[in-house]
Each structure stands twice: as structure tokens, then as C-alpha cells.
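Running co-folding for magnesium ion.
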Amino acid sequence: MIRAVKGTHDILPPESAVWNRVESTAREIFDLYGFSEIRTPVFERTELFARGVGEDTDIVSKEMYTFEDRDETSLTLRPEGTAPVVRSYIEHQLYQDPQVLKLYYLGPMFRRERPQKGRYRQFHQIGAEVLGSDNPAIEAEVLEMLELFLGRLGIKESTLLVNSIGCSRCRPRFLQRLKQELAAKKDLLCEDCQRRSETNPLRVLDCKVESCQPIIDGLPSILDFLDDGCRAHFDKFLSYLKERGIGFTVIPRLVRGLDYYTRTTFEITSRILGAQNTLIGGGRYDGLAELLEGPPTQGFGFALGLERLILVVQQTGNLMASLPPQLFLAPLGEAAFARSTLLARDLRRQGIRCAYDFEPRSLKSALRLANKLQAQFALIIGEAELHSGKFQLKRMSDGEQVEVSAEQLVERMRG
Ligand code: ATP
Ligand code: MG
């Protein structure tokens, strides 16, 4: 037997209906807030991620699916969506639009991680990016949109964590101090952090190894190092959240795993998820467009993991997987079967969801199946009904039965 590749999974019915519901809710809410969809290719030149995500990140250093094309170009299955969106923004000169650009994407991402609950090698993200504004109001608006989206899905208990990681002007002073402190405690750090403490000390704050936690807790806070501009930006952002009644917790050690982030960073977590508890991660990335040889462009965005979101929705949400048929057709005999296939065609053309079985059944067994499918009504089509053109319509909830013509049937089903 050939099985799906480790870390990948099939999305089967009835769960696929939940996926559709979640995706269409995202499209509806994001559209309300003026976001348009962008679809970028599933693979890109490796260079895009090496540069745009950063060589020293987990993603680039150990998680990418990279392969050589037949012409020796190095290609990579996209591990995230922001670098491709910004690549496309530059390539198509979308910056010529005088307005702030709001884009969202939805699709599979690929990272070679150790598969576990909520962590896969092919997974799906919904993400959104706002390009061309450094106003903290846009950040608050995006969080407001996410609150509405999660609320629509019936998710009530999520936590918003926020922080600012400063900018290229004030961060170096913090990094220098961090390096000093980490050098003094180097022996106590895990292997990865020993390396990071020199190459990319900010990422030590992101470490999840148990033994590093007490050391991280004792490190200085980046918030004490913000310059006036970054401080004012962060304070405004927080005040806009308060105005909207959006609850949050400031976590000074919250940094993002990607190098291009500046100022505001955030995460939305859910305790339902256990160890992999981050549902959404995002922040500001004012330096990315220039890094990719585009014009300086401020950016703010997020990505949410769909598998994790679906896990939460299935535990707390009130999304019905899929709707049962309105009508189950129960033909008795061959002539009645032929008539019911055409009747089903006419009903479906009028938007009525109906079902019937392709195997001959007795009336009793047909009604049993109608019950199992949770159909609202069953329509009995026997010899007598064929001749009279009147059918027996049975309401499954209480067994009430009435005689209807084909025209009356459509009316009743609509009502
Ligand atoms: P983590 O710390 O959990 O590895 P990350 O910082 O690598 O997350 P991001 O790159 O910010 O994650 O991606 C945003 C979201 O995408 C995550 O919060 C998560 O919901 C989801 N995600 C990331 N990697 C995976 C994966 N391998 N499988 C499933 N979902 C994922
Ligand atoms: Mg990760």
C-alpha cells in the first residue's frame, strides 16, 4: 500500500466542509476590511527565502524543501507567504498604487519539521499583509479584524500577546547588551542558544528548551531600550487596542523567528492547542522590501496555521460540518427509479439539495437510510404515484405525510 508522505495529510469529508467554512469566513471578513486575494506560486527561487527570511532562522537553516531544477536553478517549496508576497509586490510594481495595499493569501506551506499534533510538513496558512503604512492604527485594525474572524468561528478563549522589538536604530544597543549578558551565562545555555547568542542573540528569547527559560527570564527587556519613535509607536498601538476593547498582554520576550520584523510583533495563542499553542503570529516588517531590492516599504501582517485553527474550531466552535439533504427520494421499482433520477435533476436545478440511493430498496429500508442521512423529508414514489403524478411527502421529524404534485413539492421545499 502506498501511504501519504510523513507529515502530510488528506483532508477528508466531513472535515473538509469545516475547512471550507473557515476559508469562506476568512474571505468574507477580510473582504469587509478591504483585503484582496493574492495567489503566488508554490515554489520560488531559494534565494528569496534565504534572503527574505534569513539564513540563521530555523526555517532556512533546517526546514526548507530545496531541490535543483533540471537547469540547475535552486528552487524551494515555499515555507511561508510574506517573502513571496513582497517579491510579487516589487516585481509587479504594486507600489505605484497611491493607496495602502491590503492583500491576503491562503494555501499550503512546506517545512521539514518533526511531525506532531499541530505541526506538519505540508500545512496551510491564511495570511494577510498591509503594505505602505507605518501607522499603528493599521495594526490595531488588523487585530480587530482577527478578533471578528475568530469570533465568527465561535472561538472565544484566545490570548493576544504583544511586544515591540524596536528598529534598526535602537535595537543594536539592546543586542549589544544582550550579547554581554549571554556571554556571561553561555555554559548554561542549550547548544542552539550558544550559537545564537553570537550570531542572532534576539532569537535566544524565542528558545523553547526548558533549561534556557530561567536564564531568558533574567535577561534585560527590549522595551527599556526603545527609542522615542518606537516607544511612541508602541504606546499608540496599545491605546488603539484599548479603545477597541481588545484585551492583550505585553510579553517583552516575544520576538518572531523571522529576521525582517521591526517594532510591533504579536501572537495569538489558544490553550486548547497544548504544546503547539500559537495559532497566529505576525508583526511589522519595514525592512523586508528593501532587503529584496524593492523601494523602502512599510509592512505589517500575520499568518495563521489552518490545521491548528481547525483543531480549535472543532473543539469549541459551532460550525456544522455539512448540511444534511433536504429531501430523500424513495423510488419503489425500476420505472419509479427512472422517474426519480429526473425529478432529482429538476429539484437540484432549483437549488434543492436531494439524495437517493442507486440500489433497489424496500420502503422500510429506504426510510431507514433517509433517517440515517438526517434528511428533512422523504418522497415516496411507487407505481400508483407514477400514474397519478402525486407523490407522498413524509416529514421525517414527526412522520406527517401529505400528497403533493411535482410543482407543489418545489414550493414546499422552498418554504
Ligand atoms: P512555531 O513556533 O510553532 O514553530 P513559527 O514561529 O515557526 O511557529 P510562523 O512562521 O510564525 O510559525 O507561522 C505562523 C503560524 O503557522 C504558526 O503560528 C502556526 O499556527 C502555523 N505553523 C507554523 N509551522 C507549522 C507547521 N509545521 N505545521 C502546522 N502549522 C504550522
Ligand atoms: Mg517553526
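Result summary
The pocket of adenosine-5'-triphosphate (ligand 1) is lined by residues 80, 111, 113, 118-120, 123, 125, 257, 276, 278-281, 303-305, 307-308 (CB under 6 Å).
Residues 150 and 156 are 7 Å apart (CA to CA).
Job closed.
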